[in-house]
Amino acid sequence: MTEPEFLTTTRTAYDTVAHSYADVLRDNLAESPADRAVLGLFAELVRGPVVDIGCGPGRISGHLKRLGVDVSGLDLSPEMVAVSRRDHPDLRFEVGSMLDLDLPDASLGGALAWYSVIHVPWDLHPAVFAEFHRVLAPGGLLLMAFQVGDDVRRLEQGYGHDISLDAYRLNPDRVLAQLTEAGFEPHTRLERQPTGPEKTPQGYLIVRKPG
């Protein structure tokens, strides 16, 4: 079966920028107290194994590991997974797609989608959220982070490379409604104003699978 075009373009773009991306963002968390606070809350709340879905170079996985979380990572880009394994040899990283997670039902205590759903077209979000719900055990938590908005940006340059990639900004009300429809209960919602090079507010949602 032919894969959706957005998966091909996303994989190609992140394969291209993987090493530059890791270098540029390596210390980014040190400059974002809001990010650290949300990840710290998630780490305090979550019980059981967590998968960082769309883990990129593994920097958030590594941070959660330092907070005591049993975490592994998954990414669409083989180059990103290679960088993750290089930089975090004590963690497990695999290649995979959030549209079809190679994980048993109800096998996770938590899932993280840290700026990773932003390349999935809006009309496919319900399918992605249903897949997140499937792999979480009752009581499991999902943490999402994303740029807030209602538009799509075409990215032609990234981290010093020519790329071709769509980035979808997300409306928190719509996302929360879709997550509720997928069977989640809201837990925490946070929105902060842009800082530094950011152009939009940043949104964070923690939701729980009932049980």
TrEMBL record:
It comes from the Bacteria. The keyword Transferase applies. GO terms for molecular function: methyltransferase activity. InterPro entries: Methyltransf_25, SAM-dependent_MTases_sf. SUPFAM superfamilies: S-adenosyl-L-methionine-dependent methyltransferases (SSF53335). Keywords: Methyltransferase, Transferase. One of its GO terms (biological process) is methylation. Residues 50-140 form the Methyltransferase domain. The keyword RNA-binding does not apply. Gene3D superfamilies: Vaccinia Virus protein VP39. This is SAM-dependent methyltransferase.
